[in-house]
Task: structure prediction
Amino acid sequence: MQPIITLIQDYLSAVADAVARVQKDIGADLVRQGPGGGRFPRFGNLSDGSEYQFHGIGLSVESGDIDVNFDFGTGGRYDGFDAWSLWCFAKQQLDRYPTFQDKEDVDEALRHLISERKVVGSTNPDRDRLFYLAGSTPRVL
Result:
């Protein structure tokens, strides 16, 4: 059985990898600005064969069997998570995360981490409803 903290760390690692691949192909400065104004396509293929799609305030990158989908937080942060994103990530890997195949189990485990102050909410909840690992260094575009 994998603890929720392992799921969070694996998810954040997949997000960081996805951001790095998109930045490599599109360019870090352009990704920071976003696809608006025709700077680059909102969706497409990366040189490694994976597919990306910018949506709302987030990004989805599909590579093989794993699709990592996340929202950008305040100031371009990409180290945030919520129960829905963690659950979607876990559902793709039943063997690795059998405990987190039901969203309610992810919700409960996340609430427990919040009560222990191992996970904190955004400092700007009007803009960003994501959670972050307490004491972590922000990852920003």
In short: DSSP finds four helices and six strands in the chain. The beta strands are 43-45, 51-55, 58-63, 66-71, 119-121, 131-133. The chain has one domain: 4-133. The longest strand covers residues 58-63.
